[in-house]
Each structure stands twice: as C-alpha cells, then as structure tokens.
C-alpha cells in the first residue's frame, strides 16, 4: 500500500473506527478495500457519468458474510450500495459524493452451486458472470438465453436487480421470466432462502419478484436458480430493408405467426443508425444495395436444422411479394450472420464516436410504435431543426432505444438543458400511449426524478410501503429508483 493509501486508510479508520473493526471481523482482510486506487473502479460507473465516494468497499465471499455485513449496517444505519459488474446504464450501482455510503461488491460470490440438466435449472451465486452461466449451461448440453453485450463483465446479481432484457426477450422473456428462485439477504441481515427450483409453487406471495428489478433497494440478492433450455443446434439469419417502420411491425407479426417460437430475434435499426455504424465501426459493410428507411435483423433458432433456412426464406419471400419489405439478404454462413450482428451491436460504439447522445430506453405496445415514431420524430425536428435521431431496438418486444444525437462539441450546460427538454417530449408521448420510460436499463439515478411524473400516486405509495416494510432504516441504495 502506498503512503497516500495508508493515510487514507488511517483517516477512514479514525472516522469510522467501530464500523471498520466490525466489518473486518465479518469479512477479513480480503473482504475490505481501503486503498483509494483499488476503490476507484467501484466508485465510477463504466459510462463515466457518475462519480462517488465511499469509506470502504466490502467484498463478502458468501451469503453468511453478506448477512453479517448487512446486520452491522442495519444496526449502525450505514447506507449500502450493492454492486455487481458495474455495467449498468442508469447509475444505479454508484455511490453518491457524500462519502457515507458503503459499497458492497458481490464479485467474490462467484460459485456455480448446482447444474441440474434433468430439471433444466442452474443455481449460481450473484457474482457469477453471465458468460460463465452460458458456459456452464453449454457444458451440460443446455442453453441460458439472456444475451447482452456486456456478458463478459455483467453479473447475475446485477442482471436480476435490473431485470435485464437483451436480444432474446421476444422468445424467452426478461430476466424475471428466466428465474425460478432467489436467495436474498434482507437489510437487517436475515437471509431469505428462496432457492426453489420449482415451476409450480402456489403457496402465497411470490417474493422473488420483489427483489428482481428492485435495483438493490430492498436487499442483497446473493444467489438464484435460473431456467435452462434445450441447446439450439441451428440458426437462420437474414437482413431486411423496409420503407417504413409500420411495415416492419407487420412483418414481425407475420413471422411470429409463420415461425412460432423459432423466431428468437427481431432487431430494428433506422437508416440513420446503420449509416453511423458504417461510418464509425471498422470492418463493416452495408448488407443491402441502396438505402431503406428502416432495417431489421431477423433470426430463427431451433433444436432441429431441417427446414429452418427454407422456412425463413419462404416467410421473407412472401413478405417481399406482399410489399412489406423492399429487399432481403439471407445468410449462407455463420460468418455472414456474425457480420450482420456486428452492425446491430456497433450502434452504441458509433454513437459515442459521432456525438453526445440523449438516450431513451422506452417500451411501447407494439401496435403503437409506428404512431409514436412519426409523432416524436416530427416534434423533435421542429424543436431542434436538423437534429439526428438514432432509433433502434428490440422491435419484437416493443423496446426502442430512441436516442437523439447532439454534436460532440455541445457544451455541457447546453447538453443538460436539451436533455431535460427532450426527455419530457419523448417520455410524455410514451406515457400517453401506455408505455414505459425504462424498458431494460432501470431507473437508478438517471430516471429517478422523472418517475413520479409517470407513476400513479397509488402505485408510488405501494412501492414506498414495500420499501418501508423491508428497509425501515432506509439504508439500501439511497437516492436510486425511489
């Protein structure tokens, strides 16, 4: 430890002597991070939007140590920010600047406890990486469908706390739909052992759903039983171009009727989104000749290869004949499919290089998407003439990433002012159509102050009552979500 680190540790110990002594007794040397340089990755979100301070980062190795830590924090009224892989998009896992909030990292709780192929279930601790779950499922001849760009660094605990979505929601659902049981440590240190690997359990309130999507405000998720599925052995992938977004909405409905559960992905991106990727991401090329107002990446998957490419070709051929789409490119190899997915996955990287994005992670009834896009596009272009709208997302489940790209040299004050105005314009329209201002990224700090505008008073009251019942000392992730 450097001299500065030793000085910092001494200062923390002087300010919180009893707390640090008790935490050390609970987790040992390996469970405490006091060095400022070692703490730094825990105190800043990966997007670089939020920076905080903490007297200590605690890294319990198991549920028992987590329970001991939470009992201490409950008794001493010490605020706790639980953190998994720190890959969130809304600042939900970053402490504030007060220096009073302890960070509890689940990174050391990384054991895969059980793989049960016959029950199609996998029991893992909260710190296990999503990529490790994929590997464990594949080794057992099974498949875990949650797919995210951050799967090499995001953790199952974080996926649960934010009810993560991703590209396979169309067929398999969000994280909430992929969990059978949850183990959680309550704010007072008691452990709820809810690791039931059952698909039927009609014995009262389903408490696991309180913790899933709660963003660390009700307790610490320490383990979960995940659903597994048969491993797909065949995929068929295509790219389509259409003249308008309503055509793609109609196409996905038609494909769902023709292909059933084989349709696993229907990803949409506007021509503006594709153009950004082609300009700013290396080794990419346009999949179709000419420009089309909207594009979709379509993928079928099945446990049987027979007939899958033919099914996709026939279905898209029918759409061409009906005029729903203007052009189609069907992949003849895995390499071609990877090239198409690189276009879809390159949008975030392209946006960072091209400008400052005001991002909206919204959900709408699929039938309302075309009307919303037409109305919002017109309103924003009237508000900011010449503005670039980067519209892409998981069209099959109604989740749009409807972003507005401002120039890279936009001053911070101007960017902040535009953000507030654009958020109101977009989110008011989403709410009026029965949509949500957060489809898969969570509320965190980013949308916290907007939430009361879009939740009914009764809904907000019920959420606060649940919070008060489980966390009466209000120590769990203060300043987030609620």
Automatic annotation (TrEMBL):
Start and end residues of each FAD-binding PCMH-type domain: 50-231
PROSITE patterns cross-referenced by the UniProt entry: FAD_PCMH
Domain of life from the UniProt record: Bacteria
InterPro entries reported in the protein's UniProt record: FAD-bd_oxidored_4_C, FAD-bd_PCMH, FAD-bd_PCMH-like_sf, FAD-bd_PCMH_sub1, FAD-bd_PCMH_sub2, FAD-linked_Oxase-like_C, FAD-oxidored/transferase_4, Oxid_FAD_bind_N
Pfam families in the cross-refs: FAD-oxidase_C, FAD_binding_4
The keyword Flavoprotein is annotated on this UniProt entry: yes
Chain spans, region Disordered: 81-100
Listed GO biological process terms: respiratory electron transport chain
Molecular function per GO: catalytic activity; FAD binding
Record key words, sorted: FAD, Flavoprotein
Requisite cofactors: FAD
Family note: Belongs to the FAD-binding oxidoreductase/transferase type 4 family.
The protein's name in its UniProt record: FAD dependent oxidase
Organism expressing this protein natively: Hylemonella gracilis ATCC 19624
